Description:
mainly alpha, 117 residues, 4 helices, 0% strand
Amino acid sequence: MGYANLRELQTALTTASDLASALQSAPTRRDADQLVDVLRQALTAAGSLGAETGPTGCALHPHGAVDPLHGDPEDPLPPGYGKCLLCNDRRRRADAHPPHSRPYARPHPRWRRHLSA
Length: 117
């Protein structure tokens, strides 16, 4: 049970309670949809409390941060990227500096020193 999941559940339930208390005798469709969305968030957070893997689904960082670009239709993540912000950051850094773009340092042959002596 991660602290972030617990806080997410508490926040969603508080928001749902506030929305339900503010409803009038005839709530609008928008009000009802907003309440349903918050209750779904609470249900998702509650379901992840006892899970082996956290919200990232990552074996290395199960309770790490979720990448804010995950699921963004306007700026989708490249293929192979998951929800884990830490792993995606590592991938971004590796993609920014491909191994072939580094300058090649020519090794100094040691055999020349032995021949000139």
